[in-house]
Design goal:
elongated, EXOC6/Sec15, 802 residues, Tetracycline Repressor, domain 2, EXOC6PINT-1/Sec15/Tip20_C_dom2, mainly alpha, two-stranded antiparallel sheet, EXOC6_Sec15_N, Exocyst complex component, 0% strand
Length: 802
């Protein structure tokens, strides 16, 4: 506490020192402030005196300003009066200086209007003021762009009023100015017409869009009515419906002469009523200009000008944008402009007398039709998306229906749609080629397993399959086909639906639609699907299991062709017994694919057999044979057994043919292996080992790897080898030579050339096997026998050739 108190005392001393240091400055500031207060008081008194003097002196100025204000107001009123009077006469005449000895019209007007009021001179003649009033009315009508009434007023003024005051000089000025006023009215009305033409050129797409919406609504209404029971005969034509709708909207749609030609219309919702296309346009500029030119005797000039300008606009409208084919909006805008152009011309045709005629409209339509069709042919050829082609077709149909409502012939458009139909078919085929390729590439080529009744019904619902035996089997069970069967079947139906969509609204008969769908489906089957299947079959990495499954799948797809026929019949209501009805080629397609798969199976089996045979490693100089067949052959037989076990679901003839083909190829390959040129020497022991391998093959053939063969039928594939080996192992040359050529010969399948080639290899072996063999009597006798047999075989060969 003592330290704190000491600290406080120190701070107090510092504060006291600081206050003592600044005290003198504080006193000086207070003194100066007192002096300033006195000066401010004196200044306030001076300002008050000055203000009092200023108020006193300004009273006279305020009075003078009020007098000036009244003078200016009078001057403005006089100027306004003079301006109003000057409007009654041509402006250029009011500014013209008076001739020597004469007065201007402005002076005359002022004199007539003001002399009585200001100078009390006797009034002018009573007929001066009606002339001036009529002239003022004329100028007011021209100012408000009421040109046709102005022209009537001008005619009335010229023939009724001016003749009464013709001896006055200012009236002569009016008479001279009348032709100029006519030309002015004529030019102004023509300017309004040009604005109108420019406006409808810019807004023709909006007019066409509205007309096409109206046509779409009418079509939807017709579809609804056609689906309901018809009561009486209250159905109206499309033209009547359009006309009644236009009339109703015309009574509620205001128009004014100041409009540029197009009334503003907000975008309507789809469920709201679309206004009549002709209600978007204010045609009053055309009517006014036509009336004016008719009154002025220049109707022909007006007609020629109007038609010339509209022809130019038609050529611009018919020029398609370069990127029109990229989106549907490009086509839609192009069609809207064309429809808008002809909607306007149709209305002009029916509401004016002779401005345009039917021949002129027909000429324009022929030009438009040819250019439109040429543009569509060119741009649609770039389209590769079938959905875009389908949307384009629907848009063309709506375009044609809209113009047909207004009486334009559109048969050529529907003929062109038949050309686009072929292009649509090509794009569909390309699209479905990718669909089939994806299905076939993603398939596992295994039977579809199902573990419940729900899954079983799902598969049966996707693909028409009936098998009572499979239905009786307990779950889980398998369908014989893989997943690509129901997928391919459903995609074929989707393709048929896509073809049917294009045929809608083309005014085709059921027979024509049916024929189109069948032809397109045949192209899908014979070209697209067949090519996809062939590509899968010919792939390098395809296995025997996949090929077997493909055969099974194509068999079931072939059976489903009749259901596709029924499907087409149901959606087109054309019976297949109808004359000229095209038949589906699905059966042929699937048969060809199955045959290709079968050939590929045969080829693959032979290739596998060749791969096993490449593992053969015979000791052709072996002294003794083994106790069993070679390892490579045992593996080969095991492979064949497992492979043919997979063939259980194949048609019987396919499995039998594959088995017989494999056995024949194996026998032929073994024969070639025995007789190949690289084997120059052959011992009896090696021949016996080879015989064991052939016996193994015969045992495989007797085991019946594929059911359906008759007894020993499959063994006949090895008969050539069996007789050749029996001939050498039993050394039964006497029988062979004695019975050669006879039908009952025991060794009928042994060719003497083959026997001689094999004998030569054994003869060389006998000679080189033992250098002392020539000193042994048995060996010498054997060599002599071999030489004798070889000599006789050569004799048989020579006699056969001779």
């Amino acid at each position: 506490m003592e330290k704190l108190e000491s600290r406080i005392r120190n701070h107090d001393r510092e504060i006291e020192k600081m206050c003592n240091f600044h005290y003198q400055g504080f006193v000086d500031s207070i003194t100066e402030l007192l002096k300033v207060r006195g000066e401010a008081h004196r200044l306030k008194n001076q300002v008050t005196d000055t203000n009092r003097k200023l108020q006193h002196e300004g009273k006279e100025l305020v009075i003078a300003m009020e007098e000036l204000k009244q003078c200016r107001l009078q001057q403005r009123n006089i100027s306004a009066t003079v301006d109003k009077l000057m409007l009654c006469l041509p402006g250029e005449e009011l500014e013209r200086k008076p001739e020597p000895g004469g007065v201007s019209l402005g002076c005359i007007c002022l004199f007539l209007s003001l002399n009585n009021a200001y100078y009390h001179i006797s009034p002018p003649p009573h007929f001066f003021f009606p002339v001036l009033e009529m002239y003022s009315k004329l100028r007011e009508q021209m100012k408000t762009k009421r040109h046709y009434p102005a022209l009537k007023t001008l005619e009335h003024l010229e023939h009724s009023y001016l003749p009464q005051v013709s001896h006055y000089r200012f009236c002569k000025v009016m008479v001279d100015n009348i032709p100029k006023l006519r030309e002015e009215i004529k030019d102004v009305s023509m300017s309004d017409l040009k604005d109108f033409l420019e406006s409808i050129r810019k807004h023709s797409d909006k007019i066409g869009e509205t007309a096409m919406k109206q046509a779409q609504q009418q079509r939807n209404l017709d579809n609804i009515i056609s689906q309901q029971p018809r009561i009486g005969s209250r159905k109206k034509s499309k033209k009547d419906a359009f006309t009644s709708l236009d009339t109703e909207l015309e009574s509620t749609s205001p128009k004014s002469e100041q409009d540029s030609g197009i009334l503003d219309v907000e975008d309507e919702e789809e469920d709201e009523e679309v206004p009549g296309a002709q209600e978007l346009v204010d045609f009053s500029p055309v009517y006014r200009c036509l009336h004016i030119y008719s009154v002025l005797g220049a109707r022909e000039t007006f007609e020629n000008y109007y038609r010339k300008q509209r022809r130019k606009q038609a050529r611009l409208v018919l020029q398609p944008p370069s990127n029109m084919h990229e989106t549907l909006d490009g086509y839609r805008k192009y069609f809207n402009q064309i429809v808008g152009f002809f909607v306007v011309e149709d209305h002009i045709l029916h509401t004016t007398q002779g401005l345009v005629n039917r021949a002129y409209i027909d000429e324009l339509w022929e030009m438009a039709l040819s250019k439109t069709i040429a543009a569509l042919r060119t741009h649609s050829s770039y389209c590769s998306d079938p959905d875009l082609v389908l949307d384009l077709k629907n848009l063309i149909v709506l375009f044609a229906d809209t113009l047909q409502v207004y009486g334009f012939p559109v048969n050529q458009l529907f003929d062109m749609l038949l050309e686009i139909r072929d292009q649509y078919g090509d794009t569909l085929l390309k699209k479905w080629a990718g669909v089939f390729r994806n299905i076939l590439d993603s398939d596992n080529y295994s039977p579809i397993p199902v573990s419940s009744e729900e899954l079983y019904k799902k598969v049966v619902g996707q693909f028409p399959f009936q098998d009572p035996e499979l239905e009786k089997q307990p779950f889980p069970k398998k369908f014989p086909f893989s997943e690509f069967v129901p997928k391919v079947y459903n995609q074929i139906k989707e393709f048929i639906y896509a073809c049917l969509k294009f045929s809608e609204d083309l005014h085709l008969s059921s027979t024509e639609v049916d024929d189109m769908i069948r032809k397109s489906t045949n192209l899908l089957l014979t070209r697209t699907l067949s090519s996809s299947l062939q590509n899968v079959i010919k792939r390098k990495n395809v296995g025997l299991t996949e090929l077997v499954q493909i055969i099974i799948n194509t068999t079931h797809l072939e059976k489903s062709c009749k259901y596709l026929e029924e499907f087409i019949t149901n959606i087109t209501n054309v019976l297949p017994e109808t004359v000229h009805t095209t038949k589906l080629y699905g059966t042929t397609t699937f048969k060809d694919a199955r045959h290709a798969a079968e050939e590929e199976i045969y080829t693959n089996l032979n290739q596998k057999i060749d791969q096993f045979l490449q593992l053969a490693d015979y000791d052709w100089m072996a002294g003794d044979s083994g106790s069993r067949a070679s390892d490579y052959l045992i593996d080969l037989i095991a492979f064949l057994r497992s492979t043919f076990a997979v063939f259980t679901h194949l048609p019987g003839k396919v499995a039998q043919t594959a088995c017989m083909s494999a056995c024949k190829h194996l026998a032929t390959s073994l024969m070639q292996l025995l007789l190949e040129a690289d084997v120059r020497q052959l011992s009896l022991g090696a021949l016996q080992q080879f015989n064991l391998d052939v016996q193994e093959c015969e045992q495989f053939a007797r085991s019946g790897p594929v059911p359906g063969f008759q007894e020993d039928t499959l063994q006949l594939a090895f008969i050539d080898l069996r007789q050749l080996l029996d001939l050498f192992t039993q050394w039964d040359w006497s029988t062979y030579l004695a019975d050669y050529g006879q039908p009952t010969c025991k060794y009928l399948r042994v060719n003497p050339v083959t026997a001689l080639a094999l004998l030569e290899k054994m003869k060389d072996t006998s000679r080189k096997n033992n250098m002392f063999a020539q000193f042994r009597k048995n060996e010498r006798d054997k060599q002599k026998l071999i030489d004798t047999v070889a000599k006789q075989l050569r004799g048989l060969i020579n006699s056969h050739h001779s």
